[in-house]
Structure formats: structure tokens, C-alpha cells
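Working notes for the structural subgroup meeting. M.R. asked for a predicted model of this chain before we commit to crystallization trials. I am recording the input and output together here so anyone reviewing the notebook later can reproduce the run.

Input as submitted:
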Amino acid sequence: MRVMLCLDDKDGMLFHQRRQSQDRVLRQHMLNLCGAQSLWLNAYSAGQFADQERARLRVDERFLALAGEGDYCFVEDQQIAPFEDRIEAIILFCWNRVYPADRYFDRSLLAYGWTLQETEEFPGFSHAKITKEVYEKCKQ
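Returned structure, recorded in C-alpha cell form:
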């Protein structure tokens, strides 16, 4: 599976169990990445997508356990380390800002076995610049 996460400059993900920020251009970018595939996520994350986008979503609280090879997952409020052996790519969307946070992405996960394959910057709706970083597992 391919996991997408949104992070601030200090790898923050959540503050008081709420997302730090959201951006409608980023949501469209995620759906474009998925192509014809559905985007797996939980009900919390699905809530930020517009009604007309909902047909593209596969909503299940166990989505990380259910998603298969090549599937795209959007993670906002869970740790991905328990699923690392099934993850093919980690796609980070960085807000290029610092927000209050009390839950963080464990970037040390990327220290071994992952390589940065792609970096892209694009303007969002509410963010002047969003940076996309794509990490893939090193081939052994």
C-alpha cells in the first residue's frame, strides 16, 4: 500500500485529536494520485472530502489492515509503523508551517530501508506552498 500523511515542519500530525490543517487543492491532488483507484481512509478523514468526492473513497476504521498492494491510504490520526512491512511507499505532504501538535509522525521510520524518490512543490488553496516527498522501500 501507499500511505499519505500531512505534516507540519516539526512532523506534527494532530493537536487535541484534531487535524492541524486541511487544503482542498491537496485533497484533489491526492485523488489525482490515486487515478482510477479508491482512496482508503477512516471516517474521520473522509469527513473533509466533499460529497461529490465520496464515491472515490473506501471508508473503514480498519483501512490500514484491509488495504492491499498498490492501494492508496490517507492517514491522519494513526501510527503507520505497525504496518511498515506492507507499505510500499510513504508520501508526505508538508505544510511548510509549524502548528500546535501533540501527535507526531515518527520520521525515524524512514531512517532505514527507505529512500527519497521524488520531491515536488505545488500551491494549495490555503497554503502558499505544499511540499510532497515520496519515499519508497529500498530494493534489496
